[in-house]
Amino acid sequence: MKLSSLLSCLPFYRTSTTIEDREITQIQMDDRKVNDGSLFICIQGFTVDGHDYAENAVKRGAVAVVAEKELSLPVPVIVISDTKRALAMLAAKFFDNPTKNMSLIGVTGTNGKTTITYLLEKIFNHDMKKTGLIGTIQMKIGEKEYPINNTTPDSLELQTNFKKMVDANVDQAIMEVSSHALDQGRVFGCNYDIAIFTNLSQDHLDYHKDMDDYLRAKSLLFSQLGNTYGTSKKYAIINEDEKASGLLKKSTAQHLITYGIKNKSDVMASNIELGITQTKFTLETPVGNVDILSRLIGNFNIYNMLAAASAALAREVPLNVIKEALEVVTGVNGRFEPVLADQPYAVIVDYAHTPDSLDNVLETIKGFAKRNIYVVVGCGGDRDRTKRPLMAQIAVKYADKAIFTSDNPRTEDPEEIIKDMVTGLNKDALNYHVVVNRKQAINEAINMAKEDDVILIAGKGHETYQQIGHEKHDFDDHKVAEEAIRNKGK
């Protein structure tokens, strides 16, 4: 694409030199990835400033630079007030606005995002649609899987991936949308057809100043659905049982579909039967009712299924197809995932890393546990400290024995993190102790377990690493637990 054509998406900019209308081969914000014909965009990050790397980008072949200040370079410097916003506009323009050429669903909320995206993938695949998925675990285009760094990538990576999906003839894209991404404008340029809200509970208060600010960020997904009505309907899917639902409804001009269990909603679950290995309920919808027998366990997974069913109905997927898909899903990696190694006790790995998600998972376990419940849990470093004592309080509330351990300590001292967790616990409480080493903590829980006991290993779920300092070390809760079970058997 010619530089002049690409820059036409920017309403105002200034440059001190004549712009040579060069062919732009790629857009880059990482100088190390620049090659001949690149447009380099200087982004001010939390730890580095892209302006400091503009000169190196030019040496590597950048033919123009977009910046927030004048730079002395031998190529045109396009100066604009906000390069992050410009990045989204330029990326969408460069890739021909790919989300206008396929349907896009965004899922936001504290918990449940990953499970809902995978449920939707399964439903649309059953409806013979090719899907693309972007989320916490990975990116998928059809059956091909790709690694991913953030729950919601930056706007350049997003538009690059959406273009790949369009080129691969994807019909339906589904993505998790984090509050950070919404607040930082990473999803600018994404043309959402459906926005889903799961729930809101304490998380990310290391970033957001308070829960109101956290909710404000979530509401942006719904306000960004647009203010006009066209031939293609847009929908906001809202959890009616959540207190935050009122503000989110007011945040959008688009069609609403509510779902819930407690409060009257458009899509509801009734006749609920929660079991140890399965869940039964009647899915009530505006187009009819159907009985669901799912292998996903717990009330929280009923909410996930209701959200997915609501979005599928908005996309006119037949009710029988939704039923078939929900009934074949066995689970999502790291989400209430059993570790099966022929042991007489249950071991469950779950991503629960917020007070609400840990409470939901343990409440579900309490409902079917026949004997003792053991919980192995920690809290991440360099993250919201205020939720640490809450996590500990929930663990000791449900567990016969809680083991507080290291999660991803990052640059914090793991022992200091655990001290934050136990602050506020009853000093006479006897149902917890500390084992800082996570592998040792998992082994200890498994060595204590007897027949019909349940062990929950919480916090890391699908993650295959443990971040200590700035380095990531191989660590998979599922594999560590399976090895411990086999060693105990020996």
Structure summarized in a few sentences:
The chain is α/β, with parallel strands linked by helices and 490 residues long. It has helices spanning 3-7, 54-59, 83-94, 113-126, 155-167, 179-183, 211-223, 245-250, 299-314, 319-328, 355-368, 388-398, 414-422, 438-448, 477-489, and strands at 26-28, 38-41, 62-67, 77-79, 103-108, 131-134, 139-141, 144-146, 172-176, 194-197, 235-239, 255-260, 267-274, 279-285, 288-294, 337-338, 346-350, 373-377, 401-404, 432-434, 454-458, 465-468, 471-474.
Give an overview in words.
- The chain has about 500 residues and is of the alpha/beta class.
- The chain has helices at about 5, 55-60, 85-95, 115-125, 155-165, 180-185, 210-225, 245-250, 300-315, 320-330, 355-370, 390-400, 415-420, 440-450, 475-490, and strands at about 25-30, 40, 60-65, 75-80, 105-110, 130-135, 140, 145, 170-175, 195, 235-240, 255-260, 265-275, 280-285, 290-295, 335-340, 345-350, 375, 400-405, 430-435, 455-460, 465-470, 470-475.
- It has an 11-stranded mixed β-sheet, with helices on both faces. It has a 6-stranded mixed β-sheet with strand order 16-17-21-18-19-20, sandwiched between helices.
- Helix 14 packs across helix 15 (about 475-490).
- The longest helix has 16 residues, at about 300-315.
- The protein is globular.
